[in-house]
Amino acid sequence: MAIIIKKFGGTSVGSIERIRAIAQRIALSHREGDRIVIVVSAMAKTTDELFALAFQVSDHPSRRELDMLLTAGERITMSLLSLALQEEGFSSISFTGSQSGIITDGKHGNARILRINAFRINEELEKGKIVIVAGFQGVSTDKEITTLGRGGSDTSAVALASYLNADLCEIYTDVEGVYSADPRIVKNPRFIPEIDYGQMLALAYNGSKVLHPRAVEFAYQYQVPLVIRSSFSEAEGTLLTNRIKDNNMEDRKITAIAHKDGIICLTLKHTSLASEVLSDWSFEIFKYRFNNGLQTRANGGKDGSLNIYVEEKYLSEVLYFLSSRNVEVLNRRQGLGFVVLTGIGINLDLGFLAKTLELTQELDIIEINHSEHTIELLLPQTSVHTCVNILHDAFISVPKNPISQDKEIQ
Question: According to the model, what pLDDT value does residue 95 have?
Answer without folding.
Answer: 98
